[in-house]
Amino acid sequence: MAVGKNKRLSKGKKGKGKKAVDPFTKKDWYDIKAPSVFQTRNVGKTLVTRSSGMRVATDFLKGRIVEANLADLNKDEDQNYRKIRLQLLDVSGKACLSNFYGMDMTTDKLRSLVKKWQTTIECTVDVNTTDGYKLRLFCIAFTKRRQNQLKKTTYAQTAQIKQIRKKMTDIMTKEASTVDLKDLVKKFIPNSIGTQIEQACQSIYPLKDVYIRKVKTLKAPKFDITKLMEVHGNADTTTPAPAAADEGTKVDRPTEA
To answer: pTM score, two decimals?
Structure first.
């Protein structure tokens, strides 16, 4: 090494004065509240960096998408194949108010339905609810054996598949376009639309495992706080006021002689 070239020897260690700060000390926890159509209102918690200067923490919470299992939301293990997506729309105290954003089916459930010797029929339709939401519904169904059938396979003909798909489209459009989003979610939970499709297509070809496989929100109306509060019902989302301190009973002071 040439003499006089190592200039760092005379100086102290680089970055010596900096202390490692734990980033979690600057963050706050917020509760996520689910709409009133679900039994469990407390979905979980979310983290956000505390407000400082021009940066407002609530602005970074609004618009977040969270995913929860329907079995946890409704305390029913039979519904564990459904995944519900919620969007955080408003913040009230330490509670984030959410609304339905989408629905999906778990991969293991979907894979368990697909089998050999049967026809899979899928259908997609875009619908508009009465309160201005534009949703895309995905439906899936499978053919099953007729009564007293001896043949191993249950393949539907192309003409029958087209007829079934048309029935699916008509029923999904009719069921979704006559109600608002809150009532539509109530139909998704027990899979009542899938049951209707199964009954309506019985004359064309017997079906089984008919489900609304997926729901996507394509367009939402302008945010309205009053409508959001209606979705959340009368549940108290604000932080409860502290209980009044026990001040005791008033005692008269004895007069001095």
So the answer is: 0.79
DSSP 131-191: TS-EEEEEEEEEE-PPTT---S-BPPPHHHHHHHHHHHHHHHHHHHHTS-HHHHHHHHTTT
Residue with tokens 């509670």: 95
Beta bridge partners of 97: 33, 90
The SS3 call for residue 45 is strand
Q: Do residues 30 and 48 touch, judged by C-beta distance below 8 A?
A: yes
Q: Which residues of 195-208 are buried (b: 16+ CB within 10 A; e: fewer)?
A: ebbbebbeebbbbe
Distance CA 72, CA 145 (A): 35
pLDDT in tens, 141-189: 999 999 888 999 999 999 999 999 999 999 999 999 999 999 999 999 9
The string of pLDDT tens digits covering residues 135-148 is 999 999 999 999 88
For residue 10, the number of C-alpha atoms closer than 13 Å in the C-beta half-sphere is: 4
